[in-house]
Structure formats: structure tokens, C-alpha cells
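Bench notes, bay 3.
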Amino acid sequence: MNDIESVLNATDMTDEAVPESKVNEARVRVRYAETDQMGVVYHANYLVWFEVGRVEFIRAMGLSYKEMEQQDGCMIAVVEATARYRASARYDDELVVRTRLVAARSFVIKFRYEVVRVDDDVLLCEGETVHVVLGADMKKRRLPQKYAERFAAHLA
């Protein structure tokens, strides 16, 4: 078992409901280049939109992921991503990416996402990403205290 697997297996990641006040919303509009030959959004784009939601969630907490990396030498690497597709999005649809922080332990952070079409509030995709905190040397490290405190304040 590698270092990342041992962290994931040893970390209790409870799936409790998150109050609406702890949800951040980011809007995206489907570009033509994000659709396939059938005119449907290509499945991998949802992972990109999860990242948009995650970065905006961190920004809404008053933090900067860019500064976290550049000033504090701290990164949160995706080690697991899941997506469940419920309905299709198409070119020019306006979407909302709802992002929740569902776990933040010393080495592991977990986000949950919902992608919803604005016009009819249809759930298109839901998913999660699990991240391991790394230093600039790409080795596992604890989340710096100033980030850990802010992340903890945004948990349910």
C-alpha cells in the first residue's frame, strides 16, 4: 500500500449533510468546444467544473489557492474523483456548480459537488473529489494551521 492509500484508508470521512450556508455556487456556461458530436457535454468537462467550484469555494472562504501554493508551498492533489451523470447539458446551457466541503483532516480534504442547469434546476451531475495535502517536495504534509482553521469553520 502506498503513502496516499494509507492516508485514505486511515481517515474517517463521514458523509453528513451540509447546511446550505456552507455551499458555494459558481456559474459556468457550456461552450461549444465542451460538447461532443451528439451536442452533449463531454463527460470529462464535469471534472473541470468541479475544479472551478473548488477554487471558488476556497476563494469564498477568504483564501487563495494560488497563494497557498506559492507562499505556503502547500498543494491539494486530487487522489480520487467520482462523478454520477444524471442528465445531459448542452451548448450554451448556464450551469451552477454547488460545492461543499465535507471533510478536512490533517492530510486529507474532501469536496462534494452538484452541477445543476439554471433554466430548470435539473441535477446534471454529482460527484466528489478527495485530495491529499502535499508540500512543494510532493510529499504528504499537514495542512498549515491558518488553512486548517478556515477549512474547519466551513465544515458542517
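Next record in the batch:
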Amino acid sequence: MALSTRRMFLSDYGMGFTGIVLGSMLAQDRIVRGAPLPQTNAGAEPKAKSVIWVFLSGGYSHIETFDPKPALNQYAGKTFNEIPLANPVDSPLHKKRFRSVPAEEINVRDVYPTIYPMQVGWKKCGQAGIEVTDWWPHLGNQVDELCFVRNMWTTDNDHAAENQIHTGRHRLDEPQPSIGAWANYGLGSFNENLPKFVVLGGPTRSDTRQSIDSYYLGPQHAGVPLALDPKNPLPFGQRSDKQTLGEQAKEYELIGKLNGLSGALYPEDQELRARIRAYELAFRMQASVPEGIDMASETEQTRKLYGLDQEATKVAGERFLAARRLVERGVRFVQVFPSAYGVWDSHQKLKENHTKLCASVDLPIAGLIADLKQRGLLESTLVVFCTEFGRTPGLERRSGGVDGRDHHPNGFTIWLAGAGVKRGFVHGQTDELGYHALGEGHYVTDLHATVLHLLGLESRSLEIPGRKRLDIDHGQVISDILA
């Protein structure tokens, strides 16, 4: 019995921890869990090394940002039934792409029939002549670098859609790992002293943790939230002033040995494996993370480029500048929340809210694109700019509303820039009222599939035994936007 136990110990120890080390070495040599795309396919080689995923919480109005609709001004004040265009609520697309948690007979969302005019002007920008509203003057100057997808759609008509655009699942379904977690799982690291998946400004609330979570992939693949304070970027991750670096190194060495013994006894315990990695990474990160987010070394010109010198743009600017610094240092996936939870949710006072909010993000995001380009990083970095859904073409009447729009999952706009996507390009469209994504449109996991493709991963090869995913979880690559 003792001999058997000893053999089991040695076998488990070797299989458990040698396997971990081997996996890390293979990842560093660019052998990844997600099988690379066939060499015969266009774009088989990875186009992007890193992703900066920007999410605006609350649902910005696609109509007042990147998909202006003159028909709303033409027919303002009339109902859908009073204009010569087809009533979009009668379209079969309405029910096909709409999944309400409340019973249909009591749900009033997304069917407000009185057309509400656009609250801002717009113009064609750049050599590409792409329509962008006047609330985005700085981003409008970068439009020739951007690739718009104007026919996105989702199914959740409430703010659980914030999780849905990151996981691909409606709140009534089983949760899935987030897109950042899949990228983390599928790819090796460029820098062993930094997390592969970093989160700035989020998750925005405890119930949006799904947006950065990894679920059955294991906790080591979840996003690591960082604070932009070089003195304390990771809570509880700094050495005490009373402890020397040597003392701490010995402490972690002992912890590692004890964890190694436990790991040999419980080789399938993912929580334990993640904890071991966390201790090791925390020790290495103590020097690398503060340096990565410390903006003191940035020039005054760069700080102004991101709007750090202005109160209105400082928060978003710091997060975007930190994102650039992190991808520059080898972080694979940086998820940025430039504004607080739900602030784009303009049920009322849309003009007032969007005027202020667009101004808080416009200069910093334009600065990020310009900065990545001038440093040669835009060729290897993919920027994704998205929200959870759009806003209704109709005026929201709930609670006596007179100046806002409700949630709108049936059609909205996102954009991408950088590695592997076309520049100055528009893909897809919504109808004349901005109601439905026309054609097949793109469910949110099409965006996921496209991002993974550009990272050199095939979504369908990222499978876990016993965790068969649905086709909708994988999505389809939006091939028309690929450079």
C-alpha cells in the first residue's frame, strides 16, 4: 500500500506540475490550445498579438453616434403606422432577435411607435466619407483607421446584455467564459511578469463579473482587475514595508513547496492550481505592474493626446493610456471600461447625457488610435469598441418620458481598428429608421469569432471535454471586414 501511494505521489506530481511547466513552455513557443487556422485559409497567420476591448456600459445610441438616420428627422412625431415605411415591429426579425425575460404581454420595451428625431447633427468624415455624429469630432478625424459593423444584434433587452456581449449567452442560459478568458486560455504569454488578461475600470458591478469571468476554463484564465495607482495597483498584492524582498521570496518559496505537495494530492483541483500560479505571478508582478501603469514617464504631449490635462477626459484617458502601456509590455487582452456602470443608458435627457458622455471618451479614444499608430502598435493590436445594445428609434414614454430612448437589441453599431481589419470601411446596415440589423446581421459571438480569428485561433477548437458548446457560442467570422 505504501509503495502504491508513493508511486501515485510521484506519478501525480510529475503529471500535475511537469504538465503545467510543459504547457507554459509550449505556449511560449506559440503552440496554443486553440488549433491554428489551416494554412491554406486567408488570414491563417495571427494578425493581432493583443486586443484592447473597449466597452461602454449602458447602451450608447447607435443613431446618435455611428449610424445616423435622416428619416428620424423627416418623420419625427409620427408613428410607425403613419409613415410610408414598413412598420419594423411587424417584421419577423422583431421576434426572431428579441428574447424578453418578462412575459410578452406585459413587456412594453422596444415597441415605442412615436419616432423621435436625432438629437445631434452629423457629417461625412475622412477620405472614406463615413457618417459620424458631431459628438465625436476627434474620433471623426480618425475614421479612416476604423472599421464599422452597423448590423450587430443581441437578444437581451435589459442590462444583462452587458454580460451577453462578453459571453455570448442570454441571462436565462448557462453562463459561458468571457471572450477575454477564451483568448487567455488559447494563447501563451508574451510577458510572464504580467497577467495575460487585464481589466481596467471594471467589472462595473458584482453582477457584471461574468463579463471577465472564466467559469469552467479555470480561475487562472479570468480577467485581473488593476487599479491605476502605481503604489497599490493590485489589492493585497504589495509587500509590507516591514518585510524585505529576500524575506518575501523565502515566504513564497515555502508556500510554493506546500502548494506543490497539495497539488500532487489533488492534481485536478483547478482552484489550487490557480492559487499556486497567483502566488507566483503576484511575486513577479510587484515590480512589473506598477511600472506598466505608471504614467509619470509619459511626455506632456502624450498626456494631452489622451486628455489627461482635462477633468472631463482624465478618467477615460488614463485607462486608455494604461491599456497602450500594457499591450506594449506584452499583455494579450486588455478590457477597458472608460465610464461607470450604466451611464450611457439614456432613457431620459439623451441629448444632455450623450453630449457629456461622448465628450468624455471622444478625445481619449481618438488619442489611443493615433498613439498606437505612431508607435507602430496598431499593426499588431486590435481595438474593439462596443456597447451592449443600441437605443430605440421611438420616443420612450415610460414614466412620462419626453426626451430619451429605450434599450434596443435589434440593431446597433460597433467598430474595430488595427490588426487585420479593413480601414475606413463600413460593413452592414440597419433599416432607414435604425431599427433592424438587415440581412442575417451579426449576433455578438460573430464578433468573438472574428477577434479569435485575428489572434490566430479557431473558436471551434477551443473546446473543453464535457463542455460542448452550441453553434451560436462560436459565431461566424465577419469575413467581409478582414483586410
